[in-house]
Amino acid sequence: MRGGDMRGTLDRGVRGHAPDSLKAVLRIAAFGGVYANPYALTAVLADAAARGCEKSYCLGDLGGFGAECDAIWPLLARHGVRCIAGNYDVAIGRGDADCGCGYTSERDNHFAQVMYDHTLASTSREFAAWMAQLPATERVDLGGVDVLMVHGSPLAINDFLWESLSDDELRVRLDAIDGGRPDVLLCTHTGIAWQRTVDTTLIVNVGAVGRPQNDGRTDVWYAVLEVDAATECTPAVVRAQLHPVAYDWRAQAASMRAVGLPEPFVETIETGWWTTCLEAVPPRERSRGRYHVYRDAMPSPATLADGAGWADAPAVPHDGLPVVSLFGTPLFPARLWIYTNFDCNLACGYCVVASSPAARPRRIAADRFCALVDEAVAEGFTELYLTGGEPFAHPDIEALVRYAAQRLPTVVLTNAMLFTGRRRAVLASLAALPKLTLQSSVDGSSAEFHDAWRGAGSFDRAMDGLSYARELGLPLRVAMTQTPENRDDVPALRAVLERIGIAGDAFAVRPLVARGLAADVAVDGDGGTAMAVSDAVMVPELTITTDGAHWHPVGADRETSPDFLVAEGDVPLAEAKRLIVQRFLELRQADGTLPDAFHCAI
Ligand code: SF4
Predict the structure, then answer these.
(1) pTM to 2 decimals?
(2) Domains of the chain by residue range
(3) Does domain 335-575 have CATH number 3.30.390.50?
(4) Protein residue closest via CA to atom 6 of ligand 1
(5) CB of 389 closer than 6 A to ligand 1?
(6) Of 149, 216, 330, 337, which is the most buried if we count CB atoms within 10 A?
């Protein structure tokens, strides 16, 4: 057994005397979700015996997922395991048409039915009849501690007690118990172990024996409940420990393959990641796994053409699994934005992050920046976008850009106005980096249009800067922010840019967004011209600032876009990615829609 036990303790007041049959039993094992995995059950029973457990309880679901349901019965009998019924056992006992697992998604139900059909066909009628007489609950007094065992929850046999439920949601379940709240409530059904004390009840989800718990390890989990029995002077003390158990998962995988169970089920046994029945898993728990959405829920190429997703996204690989990870797909690009600073020589009227010469600079430190780039490489990001404020106002920008562009394709967004004096030499020194591209904003073919929102004199200086960058041989891109003033000037601007070598896909037009300094501009649909954005309608592009991690670069100023903040402080990129996935799933579950892309960069 490897490390990773999870422990919890609860002091109990004396509650009478334990019945004779349990007087000596102060340590019990509780497990559930055996799912026709005799190899794991054997290992768990051995582990429980080694830990001195004097009695074992099974909280139901003896079949499902694995191949050898009938192999479970003799193990339970030999070890004197007391069982209650899971929804699977009720269904198999009655010969129902489906498992009654409680899935609401069509895709989940498809996989559940495949599992159930195999289990029903391969379980002997004698074992099924035994399942049919199992009780729904068990309530024992363990050394003065009142312990209630259920399969799903006190509300229903197929109710999912996830860790992400709130205390109030758990109280609803506790208040549904006949005979009042117990000291300890043991349950299973979700397949993921956890424990928490709510008011005076220790709730323990004992996890599942039959398959790993979506954490990338092949181990399975169960619980040991220990009671220091009450004395005349001291109350009983109860502790729960959740234990991972290593077992012969190769034998289980081979047994599943031998009867032709689908490969995605076997993959879960071999990798520890869930590949089916995902929609029933709440966002917090699902975001911790490797896979997040069903492959057929991803936008089609036709949808992408309409603007949903990430234009340059690589095709989601066809690895034979029905599910995909969100990161690296059109719905969560492998593109990392880093705000190097927020101060800027300009104060454009439409600046989405309210940058200006007076803005709080929020300059990223060089060591933090380098650590972020290293994390980005390790976490599978394929592009870096450095923006601000004006990145070339950062005193260490040369070192930052060099470090980034030596490791990943890097785009620096700049207003191109500061390439004079020392910074002229800085840009020249960076020009040889093969993975570096500059992107700038030009809002019209002349100062009349460009300077309207960006300030007098900015057009001429920007064009000078772009011409210099072109002389250095730097790859250049330009985006125009569409305003009421310049909407008819696109062809003329395109011609101006072509004269300095910026043509085709290197030029794009993007909408004005009602954020930051443009927050008060009337939005489109209300007779205005600005686009209203939110995390509910935008594909996320993870963005890091000195304040934390944000949903998208257009909302990276926490003062004007607090709703886009995903996590505060120097959160690791792996955790920031998980939080993005969690929020994506929460938003998607709200109405089932997929967000559109908003392309800040070309
Ligand atoms: S839009 Fe760009 S150039 Fe204008 S104030 Fe904001 S960061 Fe500076």
Answers:
(1) 0.91
(2) 11-254, 335-575
(3) no
(4) 351
(5) yes
(6) 149
